[in-house]
Amino acid sequence: MRLTEIQEALREHGLDGWLFMDHHGRDPLAYRILGVQTERTVTRRWYYLIPAAGEPRGLVHRIEPGVLAGLSGNIQPYASWREQAEGLRRLLNGMRRVAMQYSPECRLPAISLVDAGTVELVRALGVEVASSADLVQLFEARWRAENLACHLEAARRMDRIRAETFDWIRQRLRCGDPLREVSVKDFILQRYQSLGLTTEHGPIVAAGPNSANPHYDARAGADREIRPGDVVLLDLFAKLNEPAGVYYDITWVGYCGEQVPEQIRTVFRIVTEARDHAIEFVRKRLQAGEPVRGFEVDDAARGYIERHGYGGNFTHRTGHSIGMEVHGAGANADNLETHDERRLIPWTCLSIEPGIYLEQFGVRSEVNLFIEERDARVTGEIQQEIVSW
């Protein structure tokens, strides 16, 4: 746990403390930020307060006294609900405003991990509850040098797999062999395993009308045969199977045929130009030393697509934070599903992935944008032309 850094950040944000609480593993952020490891499910509530100054303190149930083992500060036990309420009152003594994993109106669902009843309980003790969203980004979403190195290596391996997959699809179709979405999905997963990559789920392999479903999941027996004239969308996300591994997440599209129809080429051009427009917007702001907020990045890409008449066909946010989970806890490029006002800060990464989804096909182009001190860079290959054959 980076206690000194956390306390400095609390003072900078005008907070008296950061109150962590969990029950049944509902807040994985708390365990990662605090550096707590537990081999069994936590079945009783625990609390841990990091004050802006002074020693931390905690509250744990008597039958799970070791849940916060290794953390500094005075850890007090409780058993009954009365002891718990009194223990929490003592824990928060002197606090006026504390951060919790809470987001007003659940505007940032990835941060809203503390239940409403606990927030009510803290407020009833006369303590204001503030969102920990900015703190979480500082201490969960920022990468270290080893994370970036793992990401770049994952990018090299996955860009290779993506190219191999399109080549394999091309060869199968040219030979006239039947090919289904699930077969391509299995091919990719086998390549992940052989190259030391792991993933939470996926990948997305979507052909024809299925490519118009942004989160399509091909399942055996319910998937589609890939046919000439189909758009094929591949959304690949994986990380090195190492402790410092963080995700690389990309989407490319191909066309099963030599001549790509004009409508598909037009939609692809608008999507990739919106992608590049958002990237350039971020880079110019950072190079000028100006802040960039998540919703502004979404506006840049979405506005471009809207100006070309396809705003109603872009049905998801422009991008999401990337970390040890494919959807990380940092700022998202989002002014559609949420209004994310968090700043893009150095050593974080997010996807830029605008898309247009029509009845018969969909196009998405996704890259990963790593935020540097005064610039940003795409960490892998960028699709400039539709893969065709």
Overall pLDDT, averaged? Answer: 97
End-to-end separation:
52 Å
Taken from the alpha-carbon principal axes, the silhouette is: elongated
The percentage of residues in β strands lies in 15-25%
Query: Which second-level CATH architecture of the largest domain applies?
Result: Alpha-Beta Complex
Provide the CATH top-level class of the largest domain: Alpha Beta
Count of distinct structural domains: 2
Biggest beta sheet attributes: 6 strands, mixed
The CATH homologous superfamily of the largest domain is called Creatinase/methionine aminopeptidase superfamily
Tell me what you see in this structure.
The protein is α/β, with parallel strands linked by helices and 389 residues long. The protein folds into two domains: 3-140, Creatine Amidinohydrolase, Chain A, domain 1, CATH 3.40.350; 142-388, Creatine Amidinohydrolase. 33% of the residues lie in helices and 19% in strands. It has helices at 3-12, 28-34, 81-91, 116-124, 133-141, 145-174, 181-194, 262-287, 294-307, and strands spanning 17-22, 46-51, 57-61, 74-78, 97-100, 128-131, 197-198, 204-207, 231-240, 248-255, 349-352, 355-357, 362-364, 367-371, 376-378, 387-388. The chain has a six-stranded mixed β-sheet with strand order 4-3-2-1-5-6. Strands 7, 8, 9, 10 and 16 form a five-stranded mixed β-sheet that branches. A three-stranded antiparallel β-sheet has the order 11-14-15, with helices on one face. Strand 9 and strand 10 (248-255) form a beta hairpin. Helix 6 (145-174) crosses helix 7 and helix 8 (262-287) runs antiparallel to helix 9 (294-307). The longest helix is centred in the middle third of the chain and has 30 residues, at 145-174. The model has no long low-confidence stretch (mean pLDDT 97).
